[in-house]
Specification:
CATH superfamily: Dihydrofolate Reductase, subunit A
CATH architecture: 3-Layer(aba) Sandwich
Distance between the termini: 24 Å
Low-confidence stretches: none
Number of helices: 4
Shape: globular
Strand content: 25-35%
Number of domains: 1
CATH topology: Dihydrofolate Reductase, subunit A
Oligomer: single chain
Structural class: alpha/beta
Largest sheet: 9 strands, mixed
Length: 168
């Protein structure tokens, strides 16, 4: 499974249930990677999508504690157990965990690849992505040339879990 996120210098991902910044090339990158695939999001992340609706051309799986919550075009699951059971229906390589903070934290250990847009700026955030730089299990395996959006610099990074024989 894959993680996908845009993070700032401190691994912040959001403030007041909104992205810290919207970078058009990052949005295109997200779309390119996830179109035709499965995305897993929490209810609050779903609410940040255009119109609060599932993203088109993807299987949208939404984790919510509310058993009465129904969203047209999305698969609703109400526990980690239910989510993991649902995910068995799909190829693991086609699954992208797309937020928010609690979903990332619950799913990070089950993933082996992370696609991170790293923004070289420190925002005021109230939600964070797990800092992969501080985790022994993760290794940076690819990075892009510096990208710019107005005066912001950012990079497309790929982290992969080390196989047990690589550790140490």
């Amino acid at each position: 499974m894959n993680l996908i996120a845009a993070v700032d210098k401190n691994w912040g991902i959001g403030k007041d249930n909104r992205l810290l910044v919207r970078i058009p090339e990052d949005m295109k990158y997200f779309q390119k990677l996830t179109t035709g695939k499965v995305i897993v999001v929490g209810r609050k992340t779903l609410e940040t999508f255009p119109g609060g609706q599932p993203l088109k051309n993807r299987t949208n799986i939404v984790l919510t504690a509310n058993p009465d919550r129904k969203v047209k075009g999305a698969v609703m699951v109400h526990s980690m157990e239910e989510l993991l059971e649902e995910l068995k229906k799909y190829d693991s390589q086609d699954i992208y965990i797309a937020g928010g903070e609690s979903v990332y934290r619950q799913m990070a250990d089950l993933c082996d690849t992370a696609y991170i847009t790293r923004i070289d700026y420190e925002y005021l955030a109230d939600a964070w992505f797990p800092n992969l730089e501080e985790q022994e299990a993760w290794k940076l395996t690819a990075d892009s040339e510096e990208q710019t959006y107005f005066d912001l610099e950012y990079y497309f990074l790929k982290y992969e879990k080390k196989s047990p024989c690589q550790e140490g």
